[in-house]
Prior knowledge:
Elements lengths: L1 E10 L5 H18 L2 E7 L2 E9 H13 L3 E12 L10 E3 L6 H7 L12 H13 L3 E2 L2
Helix pairs in contact: 3-4
Amino acid sequence: xxVRLVYASRATQELSATDxxxxxxxxxxxxxxxxxxxxxxxxxxxxxQVLEGGRMAVNARYKRILQDARHQDxxxxxxxxxxxxxxxxxxxxxVNLQRxxxxxxxxxxxxxxxxxxxxxxxxxxxLLEELLASGVIECN
Length: 140
């Protein structure tokens, strides 16, 4: 059974581009073995991530994230059984924030600022699907 999990968390310390790159590299190395795909967005100290895969693998990964000292204020925004993956092309894609259109964020949020804590899981999933369609999600 496939599931899609969407969560947000705040970084416990400031992360550099190198730190974020390391997180993405680790995800891209380990996720294929576990059958996990997804996308990560990191903005202003906040992680927004979608994980897709088998229920046991996604649950185990989220449990590790909950225990990871780099994360605090974790919030589960959405957890759904799915028929197919939406982010299957990425072991871990990344949102290119330089290409993020504030008007698109405003379509799904009360403000043009991307704040996962102020948005529903459904709205965030819809926003990420539009970002995928518009080429804002990439895998370096």
